[in-house]
Amino acid sequence: MVRKTKEEAEKTRKDIIDAARRVFHQHGVVRSTLEKIAREAGVTRGAVYWHFSNKAELFFAMREDVFVPMVERTDAFLLSDEFSDPLDAIEASIREFFRVLEDCTIVREVFEIMISRCEYVDEFATIQEEIGRPAQDFLNKIERSYQLAATRGTLRHGLDPRLAARDTWAFTSGLLHLLLGCQQGDSELPGQIPAMLNAHIALRRR
Fold first, then answer.
1. Positive or negative CA dihedral for 108, 136, 199, 146?
2. What is the DSSP letter of 112?
3. DSSP SS3 for 31
4. 15 with 42: CB under 8 angstroms?
5. What span, in angstroms and rounded, lies between the C-alpha atoms of 190 and 62?
6. What secondary structure letter does DSSP report for 44?
7. Local structure of residue 125 (DSSP, 8 states)
8. Predicted TM-score of the model (pTM)
9. pLDDT tens for each residue of 82-126
């Protein structure tokens, strides 16, 4: 009986997170309320407050629900011993990121919410640093990979690993914003991403 209650509670929590994603995506985060999310999830507002103390906490739960498995998938390439050249690992990791983004509607919706449907004001004004932490973690990881490439002699001579990492970070972020933000009508862009990524990394090879 206790196990069943725990499973039911976990299902309710998951239903609330899924409902929050749909409501945030449809109405934007600022115009979304816990009341709207409760109705979408088919639960009472009290049930929402049982699992989440406020909208910001629910927002983070929605983000983590997608980010944790996404990071596991991209890290599987970036940190893999399969690649003798760390530059190949960087390229494979970013390629996997955009492949998942293209194939998984839920992942795409969460990134669309973060990029174009969330105003960082009110209760979100003080948490922008935490929201940006995954991007900073990505930067730190690829910097280590570029440093390893320099050590192994596969990075172009004279290229600073730290600057190369920041350039790749900006390239990836810019491509993400183009894909989900201002260039959503560009139907050719998704198919061009692998070639663009290949060209970006090729410029860093020795």
1. negative
2. H
3. coil
4. yes
5. 25
6. -
7. T
8. 0.90
9. 999 999 999 999 999 999 999 999 999 999 998 888 887 777 776
Q: Name the β-bridge partners of 205.
A: 155
* Residue 137 amino acid letter: D
Among 67, 90, 68, residue whose Cα is nearest residue 79: 90
Cβ(29)–Cβ(113) under 8 Å? yes
What CATH class does 64-202 carry? mainly alpha
The two three-digit tokens of residue 52, written as one number = 């989440």
Q: How many CB atoms lie within 10 A of CB 133?
A: 10
d(CA 94, CA 172): 8
Identify the CA nearest to 112 among candidates 99, 102, 121: 102
* Domain residue ranges in the chain: 1-53, 64-202
Phi first, then psi: what are they for 205, rounded to 5°? -85, 150
At the topology level, CATH places domain 1-53 in Arc Repressor Mutant, subunit A (1.10.10)
Residues in the chain: 206
